[in-house]
Amino acid sequence: RDQAIHDLWIEYKDSGDERAREGLILHYSPLVKFVAGRVGSGLPRNVDQNDLVSFGTFGLIDAVDKFEPERGFKFETYAVNRIEGAILDEMRALDWVPRSVRSRVREIQRTMAELEHRLQRTPTEEEVADAMGVPPDTLRTHLGEIANLGFVALDELLNASEKGSGSISDIIPDLTAVDPSGSFEKEETRYLLADSINRLPDRERLVLTLYYYEGLTLSEIGGVLNVTESRVCQIHTKAVMSLRNRFIE
Amino acid sequence: IDDLRSRRSICDELDTELSYYRRMIQGRIDLLDFELRRRSGEETRSLIEALPEILADSASGRTSNPLDRELSLDLPELAGGGAREVDTALSDGFLAHLPTIEVDELRRIRDSLSEMEAKISEQRRAVYDAHDIITGEITKRYREGTASADELL
Ligand SMILES: Nc1nc2c(ncn2[C@@H]2O[C@@H]3COP(=O)(O)O[C@H]4[C@@H](O)[C@H](n5cnc6c(=O)[nH]c(N)nc65)O[C@@H]4COP(=O)(O)O[C@H]3[C@H]2O)c(=O)[nH]1
Ligand SMILES: Nc1nc2c(ncn2[C@@H]2O[C@@H]3COP(=O)(O)O[C@H]4[C@@H](O)[C@H](n5cnc6c(=O)[nH]c(N)nc65)O[C@@H]4COP(=O)(O)O[C@H]3[C@H]2O)c(=O)[nH]1
Fold this sequence. Notes:
The complex is a heterodimer of chains A (249) and B (153).
Chain A: H1 2-15, H2 18-28, H3 30-40, H4 49-66, H5 75-93, H6 99-119, H7 125-132, H8 136-148, H9 151-159, H10 168-176, H11 184-198, H12 202-213, H13 218-225, H14 229-248
Chain B: H1 2-39, H2 47-55, H3 85-91, H4 103-144
Helix pairs in contact in B: 1-2, 1-4
């Protein structure tokens, strides 16, 4: 069985045989379904899943063309990365995060950073709304809008200002997986993060702790706090923004 | 509560593994269905041309919130390398030469994959039931105050 696929790789890479190439694309094509479904669940709800599958299919074709079997790596792992990359690249090219939301994120982050500096503590939603000259409900609606963009976009938006300083989702997953050989650097970051979360207002601290350290979903956290899931999303977005500000300083 | 957490992480591992195999089999079933439609003349496009449409989900709709944690794209340890029924099915290279396979054989493969998919989807649902019960117990402890989030930091 495996021999047949192995032969197709040799046939395609040696002679560029188009039939072998198509055979390889079809053989691995279910990977696109797996990746598009999972990447899709971190994107805004209005994104069309069929588009993701199309982008992902180009990623797979690209992977088949560029793969070098003689290097001995498994094709599946390489292909999954390229399929994911192709989907996210296309989404960015379509500018899926509306400009108005991008500028709103910057405005909220800037206001929060100024208030934190002045008050030497995390400002409440009311204080941020006041400083922005809007009613608290309007600020909450904005926070909800930002949350609806999903995990992938939030990460990018919050890191856009300072590239390479490590995103929240890079820092946190590492921390919860206990690492026996824990390098000093990780312990240091772990401590910094726990300290920053500890200084957040009660509700924000609880949401981030249950979300990142206990691994609960937003609706499950809503059940603990007795609030709606969309309210949890708003609290989460604000908390991650203030956390972000602390990390940058 | 640590015991609950370790049981839940077992469910998460099973979910990742079962969801991977389920999707790999569903993709094969959908490609077979398309080829059978091509043989009966219902479909005139080639497999490659129609690929994105074949692989898309039937209905749209999602269970999770876009803000819930990013899903892992790690492949299960064995992916295609073990000796289980599912591994044999995934390592069979029939997709690479679908147009040369007899219709009866196409139907036979489709039926056996469909049975496998139904079993895996059932196991996956059972894992979600277990996951929901365990998580329900964890959130109850937080609500009642017997578990404290501050311990986690
Ligand atoms: N060939 C092929 N078969 C497919 C595909 N998608 C699902 N199936 C199979 O068809 C059954 C019905 O799928 P459904 O109508 O989407 O109905 C699904 C869907 O509404 C829901 N569901 C299951 N898993 C998920 C999920 O991860 N996300 C979402 N949003 N809904 C899900 O539960 C229902 C029952 O799911 P299951 O018991 O797993 O049973 C599923 C599964 O065995 C596909 O793309 N190709
Ligand atoms: N604890 C728990 N976890 C759950 C449940 N349902 C799904 N999951 C997990 O959550 C992932 C994301 O689900 P989604 O957002 O609905 O996003 C899904 C959905 O949009 C689509 N999908 C998968 N299966 C079906 C299906 O049977 N029918 C339909 N319509 N869509 C499906 O593909 C995406 C990715 O699916 P997967 O790779 O299977 O990945 C799934 C699966 O690992 C649940 O009831 N409880």
